[in-house]
Automatic annotation (TrEMBL):
Taxonomic source organism: Gemmobacter nanjingensis
Job of this protein: Catalyzes the formation of the alpha-1,6-glucosidic linkages in glycogen by scission of a 1,4-alpha-linked oligosaccharide from growing alpha-1,4-glucan chains and the subsequent attachment of the oligosaccharide to the alpha-1,6 position.
Pathway(s) of this molecule: Glycan biosynthesis; glycogen biosynthesis
Catalytic activity: Transfers a segment of a (1->4)-alpha-D-glucan chain to a primary hydroxy group in a similar glucan chain
Domain Glycosyl hydrolase family 13 catalytic: residue ranges: 249-607
The protein, known as: 1,4-alpha-glucan branching enzyme GlgB
EC number annotated for this UniProt entry: 2.4.1.18
Gene: glgB
Alphabetized InterPro entries for the sequence: A-amylase/branching_C, Branching_enzy, GH, GH13_cat_dom, GlgB, GlgB_N, GlgB_N_E_set_prok, Glyco_hydro_13_N
Subunit: Monomer.
Key words, A-Z: Carbohydrate metabolism, Glycogen biosynthesis, Glycogen metabolism, Glycosyltransferase, Transferase
Active site (catalytic residues): D406 (nucleophile), E459 (proton donor)
Amino acid sequence: MAKARGGDGWIAATEATALVEGRHGDPFAVLGPHHEGKRLVLRVFQPGAERVWALTPDPLELQALGQGLFAGEVPSADYRLRAEGGGASWDWDDPFRFGPVLGEMDEYLLGEGTHKRLWQVLGAHVIDHEGTGGTHFAVWAPNAERVSVVGDFNLWDGRRYPMRRRGATGVWETFIPGLGEGTVYKYEIRGPDGQVLPLKADPVGFGSEHAPQNASVVRRIDGADWGDAGWMNHRKGRHSIDAPISVYEVHLGSWRRAPGNRMLSYTELAEQLVDYAADMGFTHLELLPVSEYPFDGSWGYQPVGLFAPTIRHGTPAEFRALVDAAHRKGLGIILDWVPGHFPTDPHGLGRFDGTALYEHADPREGFHQDWNTLIYNYGRTEVQNFLVSNALYWLEEYHIDGLRVDAVASMLYRDYSRGEGQWVPNKDGGRENYEAIAMLRRMNTVAYGECPGIVTVAEESTAFPGVSRPADWGGLGFGFKWNMGWMNDTLAYIGRDPVYRKFHHHQMTFGLHYAWSENYILPISHDEVVHGKGSMLARMPGDGEQKFANLRAYYGFMWGHPGKKLLFMGCEFAQAREWNYSQSLDWHLLDDPGEGPQHRGMQRLIRDLNTLYRATPALHVNDCRPEGFQWLEANDAEGSTYAWLRKGAPGEAQVAVAVNMTPVERRLRIGLPAGGAWTEALNTDAEIYGGGNLGNMGGVTAEAVPHHGQAHSAEITLPPLSAVFLRQDIH
């Protein structure tokens, strides 16, 4: 091999020192091939190497400059490198011979903070660049002095693969040849004060290691092979306020476990969970957050990798296959999405580039006292863009049908869960968080605008106006809002001994005073069966059978009440104990020799309620309109009974719902809008549900006896602790 022509002054001493110490802010200006006059000079930094060659057609040995630096004149930039040291030799492609990947438009949009599809330019992408395969890395760290990609491929040495700064964008990028899918990596960042920070995971990484390891992993998200065109072309109608929407909320890690207490994979869930939910008549699965998170006990609500489906169940491709399987079974997928806060884990977003970059510097704005987490700085354009782009990412890349936004109330108000002097007012001196409001409006506008047919849902517990009104009408732009008030009131009522319910009768009717102010979903979610609250069954008063009867009556009330439905896993078969995220639901209860029939009956009731709800327009088309509801009896506190009408379009069969919340059989007359036969479409006291089989077998006949403001009426039997649905016969 020839010796490259050498000489003095290959590299300035100050630059050499900065490279060796990992302080150099622009290593691409020094390392790699550079034209200097008529010469092409190659500089290489390879700690541990004793000799280095440029593998050109006529390999040239570079001059050793000391401390791992080598230099020499080469005939062209078409070369590989070879090194010897410590008795070993190795070849590699030089990252410093490759030009930038990001284009001018990307740079412009990144600098402006308006790149809708941030994930297409940031993160780690397996690509071919200038004729060579490898991975392109790009990360936003505007205040860093130096950013490097580190991993096993470079001995986790931040001096070896420093990145190129892209002007005023604050973005750093590099192309590392030879790296592909499965590469484990992090970013080593030197902050503005020169301090090297804890290694950071990629904010836009598509994969992660298994906890407790927390490095990012290069994952391909291209090459999707979807089989859900039928669903995607018609899903818009499934998300309108006229559609039947019944959601099964699921924590993937504990819905069911495999032998050995192993979590199910996305592949297994694509069969077992999808088949089960479809068989139960639900229209949608809502998944507790699947964005990568370090701590199992957070259930996903403290995510670090917002762009990475958690590796707990498999790869991005396998998660995509779960969504595809659900769609092919006619099930929509809603994801819980967490833009309200992020954890303080050192590998996460906190002080990402040595400054309060994603969060507020002032803890009165940037720290959640309740959860010991950090709050996004929604007023920073790039942060707002990061979150909006993340929402779009899930909808576009994974065909997600909807996002349920967690803890919206904590975002809307600057004084949320804060005392006097613990919060910073807005520019007008008020408590509303204008910046968070703007982010949510933008997210909804972009999501609905870019992905026709999707739906967004707010978990919002205050009376903030217009949550589910369009943004251009002054609302937040969500499709639906969880009805937390209804949930709290009705659960407080149903948890009381029936003898005291007459004193709290209107806890069950109060929700109708505001039922049309938003597009509501009635939620019995995971939050109602944790933190000492017990299971839904355990919350019911009475002995064993009465507990089941109470719960059946409550579910009947819920499915007959205006509003879309949501039920957390396990509640559908009356899980007896409180939910535990670290183990399977108690599926064995369905086979219990004692109470098994009651649990199976509850499960069948939910299936039948879903079937009736979906098949009966009167029970869903006017869920969000007052013309679909009319009280028949709202004031029978002494008897603890309720009765109302549900109405669909003119000419469609109407439904009367009557509920008895005492353990005493009631015989009463209810008004009906039309004469003739009314079929008992469902009775929660039926024997098949574990009840006493009392009721109105064969239905009732409405007579021309005015009652409850109706021209007709009928006497009906209301079994103890029951809900009865009577459907008008139309021939």
